[in-house]
Amino acid sequence: MTSPSASHEGGSDCPLSGIRVLEVSTTRAARIAGQLLADLGADVVRAVDVLPDPAIPANPGEVWWDRGKRLVPLGAEEIQNAIGGADVLFVDHTPAGLTASHLRAEEIQARNPGLTHVWMPPYAASGRWAELDEDPLLLDAVGGVAGRYPCVEDRPVAPVVATTSLLHGALGAGAAVAGLVGRTRTGAGHTAVVSGVHAAATQMATMMIEGVDQPVFSPGRSVRSLPFWRMYQASDGQWFFLATLTPDLFFRALDALDRMDILVLPEVGGEFTNLMVVGSPGVQAVEHELESLFATEPCSHWISTFAAADVPCAPVRTRAEWAVSDIVAANHGMTTIEHDVLGEVTMPDVPIAFSRSRVQTPRAAVVERSRTPEIWPRRTRTMDAAAPSGQRPLEGIRVIDAATFLAAPLAASLLADHGAEVIKVEPRDGDPYRAFTLSFISVNQCKRGVVLDLGTEPGRDALLNLVRRADVLVENLRPGRLDKLGVGPEVLQRERPELVQCTVSAYGRAGDYATAPGFDPVFQSLSGMAAAQGGDAQPLAAPMPAHDTCTGALGALGVLAALYERGTTGVGQQVWASLASTSIFLQGSELTAYAGRPEPQRGGVDHPGPADGHRFYACTDGWIAVAAVGADRTTALLRALGIGDLAEIESVLTTRTVEEALALLAEHGVPACRVLEQQGALEDPFLQENRFSHVVTDPQFGRLRMVRTFVEWGNDDKDSPGRSFTVGEDTREVLAGLGYPNARIDEVLGGRRTVQEQETSVRTS
């Protein structure tokens, strides 16, 4: 087995060795997608109009986004010629730009039918905002992120880290490799659309859920959040996040504090549900008790107390502290490269690890200043390319999802979006994430559910039988847990050598931390993200699970790379992803460091944006996002509003309606859009036009409108119907498909019927 520390030599044994990627891009998302494929060994050529001036210091983000690539000046005709030799094309134009550049899939794949064409529009494939220039502030406005951030006043908040754009890049990279996997199996090319709105959908899937038949719970935007899931301040003024997402974890925390009496406060009455609504009497009473208690000891005392009790909790640290932490070092999270202009540059390392494959040693982009007739030598294809497929590329691939909560199950869900069949294996009590019913449905709606007790021999045998017919296993059990159950990685590999095993964890394999539990806000706190968002005020953790969702995307990318390599080697391997490694990736631009680099952005209370011309503004009937970046756009903004100073913008816009303001700014070429508010977000015309959501029916809640998909494939407009399933609902069907007779299925179930069977019995009795 290759250790992560030894897996950065690159060369012919990288997963994507020999793959040619043409990147026609200007946006950060497409450049990040290309970077990730370069990290996996692909030869990535980024077509540029103008080569960078070596006398001008590069933007930190650009140094990171373009690492491992060749930057080549290519005109329109040269791009068309290069496409003929490429395996993957990334293009990030708006719809109009795509048409004007003749880079639409149907125009290209006739000449290169084996091509995987990944279109990554900054916002969406159509609709009112589709032609806006790329800007993270605008994307978070139209995608619903800004309208969900914690706030003191009821107003949109600008994230200081462009997590939606980073996730967009990871999703695009995954789609590209999925297309390659599909080509190895059928010879056909594939066409994917991965938009900025798809990234917003992925990040917001567990939060943007609306009831059609009855109202459903929607999380609020208070900076205080809930007593079991929020920031607290210790006696030394330091902050920490208590991340006890489930009742069991919160009870464990109270036990460690010797304060179980809190549960019998009159306002709580022993009911955890009384702690689920911000501002309720129960929440206020518990907050008062815990705030008073935590103010009696320094932060280190509480961190030690909770660590001893295995309670997820983390102190708030800065980015600089995180970059040199033992957790980052143990995960080989940072690397150093030499840059021709900047000298020594420290930046995040590759965020995925493999047991057999190597990843490319990060290096600075190579600038090719002279044009060459062909950017790649001619080659003979080993497979005759079939006509582009109308199917999704992973159809016929089977995935076993034996994971809980969000990050790992989302990796399996992304594979389902690429066409894989996913079977979710749960223990008898179900995935603990079912405590959050709506979120569970949104993440798992494209799977079938099986219940197996791995503590019994029939349950373990059933898992092994599933694995023998599977291509991928995704799990996030504590290290060593599968071994103790007798179905560890070596056993699984022996039973199914072709199996790709994906392990998702909180801290990775970071020594003493490897077995510790952790959730998204733990890493927002540790990594400096929460401190940066809060600025000089209280640190703020975002409610959207950016670490979970991006870890899911990176885990899926690792699985896809391993599947692609399996097509050559015939054997599978292990893939590792973690929230800790993702936390480094998500702040790649901010953590890229060299002498003289500008300070990364920091926020503050209700942060409106980075500059007067680049922020959120209130109008008479709502909010708009304005992105007047650069001298020309700033001048246009002043001219549009008839003012001479940026300080006057707010007073002018507060007298106009949203539509009046947007029309005026559009007339003068200033990028701007409406900010999507929380209430009724899924009814937004722009999201509806881009088929952001669909309806899933649940026995308890009735019809639910929730996020539909995270990627679109080809011309296949068929909507994969989502579903809500009970624990083990599909057990009999799945095991019967493996050849199990009813008596043996009963043995696996331990003589107990699934919830679905019990309900059927009641209805027919």
TrEMBL record:
One Pfam family, short name: CoA_transf_3
Keyword Transferase: yes
Alphabetical list of SUPFAM superfamilies matching this protein: CoA-transferase family III (CaiB/BaiF)
MF-aspect GO terms: transferase activity
Gene3D superfamilies, sorted: Crotonobetainyl-coa:carnitine coa-transferase, domain 1, formyl-coa transferase, domain 3
Enzyme Commission no: 2.8.3.-
Keyword flag Transferase: yes
Matches recorded under PANTHER family: L-CARNITINE COA-TRANSFERASE, SUCCINYL-COA--D-CITRAMALATE COA-TRANSFERASE
Similarity comment text for this entry: Belongs to the CoA-transferase III family.
Protein name: CoA transferase
Organism expressing this protein natively: Rhodococcus chondri
